[in-house]
Amino acid sequence: MKMCPFDLNDPMTFVLHDLKCVIELLFFCCSQVNQTPDSCQETKFKVINLDDGALYRFRVMAVNAAGESDPANVKEPIRVQDRLGRFLFQYYLHLFYEVLCPSNVITSSVNELAVNVSHLILDAGMTREVKAMAGTHITLMAGIKGVPFPTVTWKKNDAEVPTRADIETNQAGTKLEMRFCNRGDSGDYTLTVENPAGSKTVTCTVLVFVPPILEVDVKLTEGIIVKAGTTIRLPAIMRGIPVPTAKWSIEGEEIVSKDNVKIDTDNFSTVLSINECTRNHTGTYLLTVSNPAGTKTAALNVTVLDVPAAPIGPANILEVTPDSMTIEWRPPKDDGGSPVTNYIVEKRESNRETWGGVSSGSLATQLRITRLQRGTEYVVRIRAENKMGIGAPLETKPTVAEHSFMPPSAPGKPQISDISEDAVTVGWTMPLSDGGSQIAGYIIERRHKGGKWIRVNKTPCKDLRYRVLGLFEGSEYEFRVFAENIAGFSGPSPISDPCKPCRPITVPSPPVNPKVKDYSKTTADLVWTKPTKDGGSPILGYTVEMKKADTEEWKKVNLDDFIKLCAYRVKGLEEGVTYRFRVYASNMIGDGEPREIPESITAQDILIPPEIEMEATCREHVTVYKNRFLPLITMLIFLWYRLVKMR
Question: Which residues belong to any copy of the Fibronectin type-III domain (predicted)?
């Protein structure tokens, strides 16, 4: 056995065993316990001081605190040769192993072993395919080893690399960088290294992704107008790397080739075609092109114009007479994309096929058709027209030219109200039946009781009440009412109750100038003047109401009967309380408006201080004889009130 030239205490030690010159490399790659070596920093080792021409085999073992692993053998033996004219080949052995140790010890990963041999190696860090977005940077790198150091050649598609490519080569390897790449940088990049020991080549395919570019005629984005029945053609040009995919949609639903819809797409364009288009093909078509680099969307607006649809049915026949007919219809739901300019109305007898014109040049949706023959059955059709042409017709059901309605039933019995000396108001209820036709109005008639009926209103009354003027006061009148529709007049209503115009009776006006004449701590004497107007009926009496000043509720004072006089004593007041009073008059119609006394009173006695009035002779000095009578004359003034019983 040859002695090992290395220190066995070194963390990485090669031990040569027996005559085969087998080298064992110890790796200390796990946690150290006690005197175990430090962890290994690299997974390769250069073996020196080998014998020239000798043939060596190598194996590698990993060591941790639990012991050594099984060895991994290098498959082929290596012969050490003279370095002159030879190449140094770095042979990489990737060793995978699992350390048998407790679970808290980390397991090793990939290790490499390198020894000097006479070969050339190209360690290309390039993958077989590189994908990049346009505008980004592309970097291709490879590690190179060789003795002598090999020459480096880069090619693109078997031609020279563009001058804009930055190439850097040193002892560690070579690097090609393409900054702000574009679609022209796509291709096969070949790296060749060569020295006297031979050559090696590696190829990398570079794909530069270019976001989609979508070109659409501006007329399509602004909107095109086509006629129904023609072909819609929506072309678009698209570019991108890789070739974008195209997707057509409308209102969120994808469009596929089907029936009269066809989509033609190649690497550079896409076309949506719709044959024999209809109004249903009006809308905004979205074209979306996409590739891994991005997405582009364009909106193409299409309006399909057509003749209008038929007016919305059914047509309503509002009125039929022996010589005319009035019909009404609604505009079409779809105007064809262009405003309706005209309605064409035609009629024919139901037993004939020939249509005759009735009206055109109007946008009205109601028409009165005249010059009909009594008893003849007619069919009418209406068609809408726009700038694209005349649309489908709407036909009425066969209708005979005659009155199709009955006169209404009679109105309800008239009621009389609001009587004055020369006028009354007559009111009534609607008939139970209008005869199938709308009631046009009402006719009112009057008469003196037992006399001849006279029409009151010249034109039909639209309301359910009518003010009859020009009556004579004291005369007795009766009234009746007729209803009218297109078929004629109803029968007369029941006759009203007799009534006499007279001056209207109202409630009296408020009393005049009410006031408090006197008061004490328990009573208050009120006086007033009778109202200026009695309302046309004698005044039955008066009512006095009072309330405390701090409340809003009025209370009636005379509960039993009306006050006949224009004065009244209010009793039962509470001393110290403030009161307010009001008075109103009543007649047979009812109570008049109250008149409130402006001032309020506080229930208390009125106190008047005493007064003394002396004669003038007593106000000066008086001289008298002794033991004589001295007359002193004064005047005392007393004030009192007579107690008068008032109601």
Answer: 310-404, 410-505, 510-605
